[in-house]
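RETRY 2/3 - previous attempt timed out on the joint model. Re-submitting the same 755-residue input unchanged.
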Amino acid sequence: MTKTLDLLDIQGHVIRAYGRFGYPVARYVFLNIADGAKGRAFVGSVTNKVTTAVNWGSGPGEIAQPAWTVNMAFSYQGLKELDLPRASLIGFSPEFVEGMKARRDILGDDGPSAPAHWDPIWRENRETRDKDVHIFIALNARLPALLEESYAWLKGKIEEYQGGVVLLGGHLGDDSAIMDYQDVKVLVEKGVPVAKEHFGYTDGIGDPVFEGVPYDADRVNGRGKQVEGGKWAALATGEFLLGHIDEAKEYPPAPNPILLSRNGTYMVYRKLHENVATFDSYLEEHGKNFPGGKELLAAKFVGRWRDNGAPLVKAPDQASKEKFDTLLDAVDDKGKDKLLCDFTYDDDMSGAKCPFSSHIRRINPRASLEFTRDPTDVPGSLKIKQDAFDTPGALTNRRRLLRRGLPYGAVRDRSRDDGNHGIIIMMLNADINRQFEFVQQQWINYGNDFKAANDKEIILGNHSTDPKFPSKAVIQVDPNSDQPPYFLSKIPRLVETRGGEYFFIPSMTALRMIARGIVDPT
Amino acid sequence: MDNVNGNAYALTILSPIKNGFIQAEEIAYADKVRDLLQGWNMLPNSPMTRVPQTYLCRYFVLDDVYTESLPGAGALDTFSDLLPYIPDFVRRGALPKGDHLKSKYLVFSCNFHGGPSGDVDAYLRGMWNAISDRIKEVWGYCYGFEQVNDAASFARYMKKCQLTASLFFVGSNDEPLEEQLKALYLKQELAKFAVANQGLSATVLRANYRDFIKRVAPANPSAPTWTAGMYRL
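RETRY 2/3 succeeded.
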């Protein structure tokens, strides 16, 4: 019998990127627990309203799609304040216990990304007990007015449990205003909502697909794991949900009792500021010299064209892009999805189309890490290393991340970096260290696995313009051509961390148990 | 039968829970059953304390089978160790597929005093008569339970769901529940008596002991004694 997940036991936020399901606005609210017993009562009350991952329908006996959604997660400090037994607390992973701020060296949150430059809420987190971030609540809504309705509801709950939980403000908003919450929304271009971020890239295309999610069954190609013969299969559930078998055919490490961890997962919350002026001027400067022009160079940074997300592997130059666009316009949504996502790097092992340091190749290398070079091959020529591992995706399958979140703020003046604009990214995985931290440390801020020495990922890397250690990246070319590779020199810091924390998203069962105070690891 | 040991009976029930949900509460039946059972933790004592002759019992919802490890590929697995020319993909292809349960189960595991004949019917009827409301709440989401409307049909239903496994809890002897509770009571009271009377003269000790025996009435199992479900002093 095939695996079916208990969608009613899993929080909706885990399975659904709400933006894709018709929720263009969201608000993230963070709370401090002042009193354990009252805090648990608050958790119980909110749990009754928490949105599950159930398959929505409008027929009789079905659960209708809500106007706004509620989801909840806890930091380690939060779980402690909710009086989880010590024997359960010790089962959480060390990096979750430490929190994001303590992991800054591993994450490369240095220079302008260092905690000293974070928003007040994140700067003050984990310094004094009364400023610790304990509870994360995400409200997603179908319309701005509905978001306000959901926030009024939440404020009412906080009021009702006064003395139990305290709203933590300290999010930087427009004109350096200090906000009580973090607002995010889909960007709008010429009056139309678009899946883009402030640099202009189409975002959120390649989210992983794993076993047991019925509404993702036809989205496996390009999103699951690459298997033999260029085929695809859904990733093992245990890569993203605790209490399920993972790609190593084991249960991921998780706290006891099993009911506390099963169908739950870890979430990495990060606020990333985008330096739009620096990005624009850097792109402009190099776009002048880059063969193929500015837009192709912008595409080389990410691996997808900015306007519609066309992958460079399928549309490596202007001429092929035009053909791709014609194809894309001609097909339905399913066909579009296939065109945008269903590809491999098997015919681009030397990175001539999609550079090794581009965003999508670094975040999800598919089967491209099992590559090698024969001494007799021309320089820069790499090819698939056959049968190096059990499966072509062996080096990638355990490093995948579910990505949630939306852009925040608006760019009012593209000539300045210091506006309120960036993205809130939430990455969900069963093992923060093995998945998120590894990708961040080894694939974003380092390049060795891609045979790219210490070149960082172009967009997200913690680049330094220090004249002693300037950041660079190589845009590869066909090794058999006469073209030289293009060197991106002195890459500035395009994205800066403005805060974040590690959270645990419990299942519905675990939420109810935490609220009742009956988590029993014995 | 393996599930009878002396006077103790090991009752194991697996009732399949329906694959549905309660629309208004957005909760699956299996999760609701678990929620109801967990709610018993918030009561002063478990409803099962009202069921006569219950030694110990446990309820849980079985979500799925637990995978211990990757299963072997049988004989081929062994041969591939000895004969390296069997390609790995052949061996992997022969691996059994992962198995999952078709539904979730309400598992009720209970040890009770059933006498030498192992009278499960009498116990189940006693259970129905004591806590039929709770039973209906919890088992109401299980397949086939709609046929249950009285003690006799409950006993019939439970026996259909029975697995005759010898899952005994350690910690009970063979006696009827009343005897066991009385024995525990006497043990505790005697310990208290010993502490309170340490170092007294033989005369005073004898007098106090007489009063003690009169008070605790060892020959009377019904009073004074521990109540069912009592697990701390």
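Chain A touches chain B through 24 residues (CB under 8 Å). Closing ticket.
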